[in-house]
Write a structure and sequence with these properties.
This protein is α/β, with parallel strands linked by helices and 265 residues long. The protein has helices at residues 6-14, 27-36, 47-50, 62-73, 93-105, 121-129, 145-148, 158-174, 186-195, 216-219, 234-238, 241-253; strands spanning 19-23, 40-43, 80-84, 111-115, 134-139, 178-182, 200-203, 211-214. It binds 3-methyl-2-oxobutanoic acid.
Length: 265
């Protein structure tokens, strides 16, 4: 696999070739994922739950994010590395720039991911104008779990779906390089993907997105606590961590994952 850039991912979208993303927080998993052909490695703030045993992503700090991003970037040679801006790190656009620059300069990330729709437009534009590649995370925003009162599917009403479509277009216009949709009905995700000129990564968003992402501990079935219903256990089917990553790549690329059991209507 040659070095993956935003240009590579845009070309894959144009050619209708699906790409893959998984979370990693350390060198060993990142290397296995890269060898399996994963194009994008996400150092997600899900590390709060799966690495630190916290009950949500909210307590994850910038220090945590820089430490884990650096562990991943130190060994990766091909994958594009995306890192989450943790909760409230984008409270102002200036803070978002300082923290994004730190994730890139000290952590070695190639792109940052920011949760939120229209409220983040100004920040996304500010970062894009300063050369920071950004992925905008829409749909279920885990950093807003206390506002929702739980992890719930988003975009089910006509009004909520229209808002997501409008936010996706506006974020792309503001300079977002990638969109990520979490826990939305598959038909809505398909509509966003058709409308978008940038790649759309889905999680719990059906098979019509340009790419898929899962929390690696969920798809290995080892996350402490409840594993989301949209995450298939690839370890159970394949027998080893290496083969689980390979099976995931192969099933996403063939359009076999997510299937009917791993999506929302
Ligand atoms: O932190 C994370 O792992 C994420 C995924 C759920 C997309 O943001």
């Amino acid at each position: 696999m040659s070095k993956i850039s935003i240009t590579t991912l845009n070309k894959m979208k144009q050619q209708g070739e699906k790409f893959t993303c998984l979370t990693a927080y350390d060198a060993s998993f990142a290397l296995l994922q890269e060898r399996a052909g994963i194009e994008v490695i996400l150092v997600g703030d899900s590390l709060g739950m799966v690495i630190k045993g916290q009950s949500s992503t909210l307590p994850v700090s910038m220090e945590d994010m820089v430490y884990h991003t650096a562990n991943v970037s130190r060994v990766c040679r091909q994958a594009l590395i995306m890192a989450d801006l943790p909760f409230a790190a984008d409270v102002t656009k200036e803070k978002a720039l300082t923290h994004s620059a730190r994730l890139m300069a000290q952590g070695g990330a190639h792109m940052v991911k920011i949760e939120g729709g229209s409220s983040r437009l100004e920040t996304i534009r500010f970062l894009a104008e300063r050369g920071i590649p950004v992925c905008s995370h829409l749909g279920l925003l885990p950093q807003s779990v206390f506002k929702y009162g739980g992890y719930k599917v988003q975009g089910r009403s006509a009004e909520a779906a229209a808002q997501i479509l409008q936010d996706a277009a506006a974020l792309e216009q503001a300079g977002a390089d990638i969109l990520l949709l979490e826990c939305v009905p598959a038909a809505l995700a398909a509509q966003v993907t058709r409308q978008a000129h940038v790649p759309v990564i889905g999680i719990g968003a059906g098979s019509d997105c340009d790419a898929q992402v899962l929390v690696s501990y969920d798809m290995l079935g080892i996350t402490p606590g409840k594993i989301p219903s949209f995450a298939k256990n690839f370890l159970a089917e394949s027998g080893s961590v290496e083969k689980a990553f390979e099976l995931y790549v192969s099933q996403v690329k063939q359009g076999l994952f997510p299937g009917v059991d791993h999506k929302f209507d």
